Amino acid sequence: DPDSGDNGLVLYSLVSGQTDEFDIDEHTGQIFTVSVAGKAGTFNLEVQAADQGTTSLTARTTVNVTVDSSSSSNIVTLVLNQKISVVEKYRDEVQRVLEDKLEWNVYMVNIYSKESETKARSSTDETQVNIIAFDEAYQEVSAAEVERKLKEQRAAIELELEKVFSASVSVAVEEAEAAPASSELVAAIVLGVLLAATCVAFLAYILLDLRRKRKNKKQDLVKKVEITEGIDNPWAVDKNGSLKSLDKPEYMD
């Protein structure tokens, strides 16, 4: 809106459609999901833009949002050494090459870069392409099977893509990141570690206690030996086996 002041201040809103699943930023008009879990198909949203003048002017349009039902567990990520803008430009050709070499129907879920958008579009480093493959019955092909086939056909795919991009192309399969441990698993690990530490501490205490008792017992035995060696035993026997005198030694008086 080229007007100034309140007449040029435009706010956006969802006026009809599946507004429980989506929301909109009133200042930018950006639409985002709230809850589409377990849902698939096309959602029709009617969006209104209105200025804030004394007599508000409005305009409306319909936005159709398609939610894909594909399971994310079967998404495979390809890494191409091409600009994201170039991959987007030849999106259909890339899909055709993949379908021809994999011999499955291929759906390109997303094309993106891990770099910032501005840097990515001027960079030649990497572009990520998320794909899902479907067999003739339109059933999803497992990610493991797609990765296996991609590695087998890698050279042929690169050769065909070089014709599309008119440049040298490398294609790699990005390894999936390990799933984060569930809270239950983390709790079990923590409890296991604590239990193990408790057991170790208990065993250490027992061993130290035994060593202390053995040391004290040894000291007592040494004292008894010293006492025995320091006095005449009134019950001792002589070399002939007869009892010695039972008289009390004078130095014990």
TrEMBL record:
Positions of the Cadherin domain: 1-77
Coiled coil: none
Bilayer-crossing regions: 185-208
Region named Disordered: 234-253
InterPro entries tied to this protein: Cadherin, Cadherin-like_dom, Cadherin-like_sf
Cell location: Membrane
Keyword Plastid applies: no
GO molecular function: beta-catenin binding; cadherin binding; calcium ion binding
Gene Ontology cellular-component terms listed: adherens junction; catenin complex
GO BP, one annotated term: cell morphogenesis
Domain of life (superkingdom): Eukaryota
CDD domains: Cadherin_repeat (cd11304)
Membrane topology designation: Single-pass membrane protein
Pfam families (alphabetical): Cadherin (PF00028)
Keywords noted in UniProt: Calcium, Membrane, Repeat, Signal, Transmembrane, Transmembrane helix
PANTHER family: CADHERIN DOMAIN-CONTAINING PROTEIN (PTHR24027:SF422), CADHERIN-23 (PTHR24027)
Name of protein: CAD87 protein
Lineage, uppermost ranks: Eukaryota, Metazoa, Chordata, Craniata, Vertebrata
